[in-house]
């Protein structure tokens, strides 16, 4: 079984992501090829069904207009043709149009999975041929009455050709068979004509029929392209929905894992702190020789090492718990008015002995006149201590650390700590900002640490709505800047003039 990495969980996929994608693609191609082989027109079933459905939908929606058109032709033809003959033709046209309407509605009412496409295509093609013969009958009747009716007959041919092309373009064979009787009648009329103007009119009619045939092919290609594009879009939406479902499932699992981690840390923190307090207490008693001098002097050094190791482990546990609460959104700020410059000065004083042991010097540029901030004092102290302790750790013997506290350009306040340490390569900055991350130069030159200092600083400053910047280059040192927004600065109110207030009240 493959390893479930964090990247795979983040993507919401299984371990065999590429293989699953390739298998789905291959299965889709095989299904498409199988449908094309079994199709009567060489298309996938879904595409063929959509084309036939469009044919039925167009004919179902235009039946009334076709009936009106047939009625108008019958009325106009009655000027030259006996009324009984035109009435008979109109009845035939009504039956044919009504049959097409019933078939189209029946097809649209049938579920897609139950439709036999080949059979329905044959039905529609045959009925379209019958419709073309019906229209051709009317044109043939008009053409044989007298020469003066040829113009109206050719007009009917053009109108029927346009209607057939627009309604039946999604089944090209239906267009060809529907226009074949009209084209044959137009050619027969041309063969019996000797007048040049009539021959030119018939030639233009024939050209128009050819144009509509080409137009029908274009409409078919356009409809097929539209259906294919819509199918690809639907497939893409399905992929996106599946990816979203996978992502939601991965997020749910991550949340469950995070909750389990928080519960584990909450439980283990108590289980670890209890024996650690005993270790720290007893090791401190042994280190200070409260109950008498050790028989062996080395025991005092051992107890000091035990106490230092326990203290380090307790600090690490506290940092892990702080970061866990920040990531889970459960770190509650206890806000109050604090003086940023004073907190920085206190933290610098706490690290003074450690810096002095490495012969490091501090350069301070603190503005004591800064107004107070509305912030969590413990969190601010932890922010400053973390970045100052990092500077002390990474600055070599005899190095210099510069501390600045002042105003930001937007009216907030900032703390800047710059050291003269080894620096961090640009590509390693994301690593340093991750939990337990350490740069390569830092590992070689600095003291060991948990790698949680900067992530905790980033999390705490984000809770205050501030900003965090890390600027560093190899062998040029590192500068960390944290900023607090102007909204957290407490503006000082002007002093109350007591004497003037008394005079105002007396007046």
UniProtKB/TrEMBL annotation:
Per the database record, which ranges form the Histidine kinase domain?
267-488
Which CDD domains does UniProt cross-reference here? HATPase, HisKA
Quote the catalytic activity from the record.
ATP + protein L-histidine = ADP + protein N-phospho-L-histidine
A GO molecular function for this record? phosphorelay sensor kinase activity
Span of the signal peptide: none
- Ranges that cross the membrane: 63-81, 87-104, 124-143, 149-167, 198-220
Stated EC number for the protein is 2.7.13.3
Q: Which domain of life is it from?
A: Bacteria
Residue ranges annotated as coiled coil are 233-260
Q: Which UniProt keywords apply?
A: Coiled coil, Kinase, Membrane, Phosphoprotein, Transferase, Transmembrane, Transmembrane helix, Two-component regulatory system
Kindly give the Pfam families that the UniProt entry links to this protein: HATPase_c (PF02518), HisKA (PF00512)
EC class (word) = transferase
PANTHER family annotated for this entry? SENSOR HISTIDINE KINASE RCSC, TWO-COMPONENT HISTIDINE KINASE
The entry's protein name is: histidine kinase
